[in-house]
Write a structure and sequence with these properties.
- By secondary structure, this protein is mostly helical.
- The chain has one domain.
- The longest helix has 24 residues.
- The two termini are 33 Å apart.
- The N terminus is likely disordered.
Length: 181
């Protein structure tokens, strides 16, 4: 086994080991939950902070993004692939919360866990060896949609005030981007 294959296999094993953590990654901490329910009106900076906190404490996002950039050599590719994830995540987060669209949280969290495993298998060439051709950009966009839906579903479990909601969600999304930096 090559060093690259060993690293890829280790990443898959690590991802599988963290499956239970990833399955709970979209939960909202008790203190944050109380804060979310108390807000009535625009609170851009606190939501920016919560978005950054979500990114740096969201093990599912961290593992998936590490898997995305692990073998990328050019900054242009890193920006492209991370942007695909961001577009998907932001789209379903905004649409899910604003349009009150939610899904079964357990199914969404299972698919989020699978997204981490998918990247591990893709990174070690597992799909190519099996003769399966998956466009990685499309896959990352689709998994970004699922990650965003997971968060929208969790946020939908709380009574968020409609007053200032769009501003707050934009702040949250910018915070997610700051957290990736």
């Amino acid at each position: 086994m090559t060093m690259r294959g060993a690293l890829g296999s280790g990443a898959v094993a690590f991802g599988l080991g963290l499956w239970p953590v990833a399955a709970l990654a979209h939960d909202v901490a008790a203190g944050d939950r109380a804060f979310l329910q108390a807000i009535d009106g625009p609170a851009f900076l606190p939501f920016l902070y919560l978005g950054a906190k979500h990114m740096v404490t969201g093990y599912d996002h961290i593992l998936f993004l590490i898997g995305i950039v692990f073998y990328l050599a050019r900054l242009k590719d890193v920006v492209l692939y991370v942007s695909m994830f961001t577009i998907g995540h932001s789209t379903t987060l905004l649409a899910g919360v604003l349009l009150d669209v939610h899904a079964n949280a357990h199914i969404v969290d299972a698919v989020i866990g699978l997204s981490v495993v998918y990247k591990g298998v893709e990174n070690i060439g597992g799909f190519r060896k099996a003769g399966i051709a998956i466009d990685p950009k499309v896959a990352i966009l689709m998994f970004g949609l699922v990650h965003g839906l997971g968060l929208a579903t969790k946020l939908g479990e709380h009574e968020l005030a409609r007053n200032g909601l769009l501003v707050n969600l934009i702040g949250f999304n910018i915070g997610v981007e700051v957290g990736k930096s």
